[in-house]
Amino acid sequence: MSNWSRATAISSLLSFLAIAGCSQEAEQPQPPRAVRVVEIDPQNAPLAAAQGSGRIEARSTASVGFLVAGRLTERPVNVGTSVAAGDLIARIDPTDFQNKVVAAQAQVSAAQATVDQASPQESRLKKLLEDGFATRQQYEAALQALQGAQAQLNGASANLKLADDQLKYTQLLAPTDGVVTATAADVGQVVAAGQTVVELAQHGERDAVFAIAPQHVAYAQIGMPVKVWLQDKPSETTAGTLREVAPNADPVTGTYQVKVSLPDAPADMRLGAIVVGHAEVEGGLMVRVPSTALLQTGSEPQVWVVSQPAGEVAKRAVTVLRYEADGVIISDGLEKGDLVVTAGVNSLTDGQKVTVQKAAAQ
């Protein structure tokens, strides 16, 4: 073999060995990547919870006013006055209504006199007709006069009854036991029929009234329990029941009004007192993970789960119940003991080997 051929063979051999060495280096597996994980430990948690402040109000409130118009001459009650059914709340000037009663009585007297005159005439002509000394036409005229007089008497009597009622209406009486919460007319003011003079809160059950945000109203169910306590005295608590949810939002605040029945409200929960209410909707077993664990690259939320003992990561779809400031609440997709990666989730690949650094269980 010539020197040139020998040199060529040696060069080729060296090149082969170099390529083989590079291939061996390239095929060496990368070391497992260290990742931070949390161990899943589902806990019973509410599906939703809401807390807010409200006011104590009477279950039933009546706007009380006169049935007739007039000038207010007396109003012996003020805000905070307790009244019993039938107590005087206000009075308007009765002079005009007394005059109407006198006029109606005069009309009744005149109508009664006409009846008293027509009745004997009808009886006399009826007897004469039977004896053949009066004509049918004469009797019918007398009968018609009597019937007309009786009709006038009935109308006058009805007018007298109406005048008597209107005179009674000049006194505004409490329709039920309660306490005056507001006044809307003062002495000397001319009030119209039906105009509110006072607001009367009936004694009995009280309600706690709250305004809740739109995201919570979907969970509000009639009959659900609500814990209520005084804002300035948290130890004073009572159990309530949600009894009413407004169908429409307030046009200004966008909130929904709800009323909570308080059948056993303590005495300190007076009308107008500021209270705090707390309600929860039962949810079941749920998991909280850091928001950094969530992978949003697919069509649905996913997390990386580390398989044991292989130490490989794999994507798993999860159901997110809600997002919170300090994490994500997951209702389905994870089991007790799962190891979920919480950092660097966008740089992992399926099947990648990892070593775990555990954080506190979630």
List the helices and strands and how they pair.
Elements: H1 3-26, E1 33-39, E2 43-58, E3 61-65, E4 70-74, E5 82-83, E6 88-92, H2 95-131, H3 136-168, E7 171-173, E8 178-183, E9 190-191, E10 196-202, E11 206-212, H4 214-217, E12 225-230, E13 233-245, E14 256-262, E15 274-289, E16 302-306, E17 313-317, E18 319-324, E19 327-332, E20 339-341, E21 354-358
Parallel strand pairs: 1-21
Antiparallel strand pairs: 1-20, 2-11, 2-15, 3-10, 4-6, 4-9, 5-8, 6-7, 8-10, 11-14, 12-13, 12-15, 13-14, 15-19, 16-17, 16-20, 18-19
Helix pairs in contact: 2-3
Describe the structure.
The chain has helices at 3-26, 95-131, 136-168, 214-217; strands at residues 33-39, 43-58, 61-65, 70-74, 82-83, 88-92, 171-173, 178-183, 190-191, 196-202, 206-212, 225-230, 233-245, 256-262, 274-289, 302-306, 313-317, 319-324, 327-332, 339-341, 354-358. It is of the alpha+beta class and 362 residues long. The two termini are 76 Å apart. It folds into 4 domains: 33-47 and 285-358, conserved putative lor/sdh protein from methanococcus maripaludis s2 fold (Beta Barrel); 50-58 and 204-282, Efflux pump adaptor protein, beta barrel domain (Elongation Factor Tu (Ef-tu), domain 3, Beta Barrel), CATH 2.40.30.170; 61-93 and 175-201, RNA polymerase II/Efflux pump adaptor protein, barrel-sandwich hybrid domain (OB fold (Dihydrolipoamide Acetyltransferase, E2P), Beta Barrel), CATH 2.40.50.100; 96-168, Helix hairpin bin (Helix Hairpins), CATH 1.10.287. The mean pLDDT is 87. The strands form 4 sheets. It has a 6-stranded antiparallel β-barrel. Helix 2 packs antiparallel against helix 3.
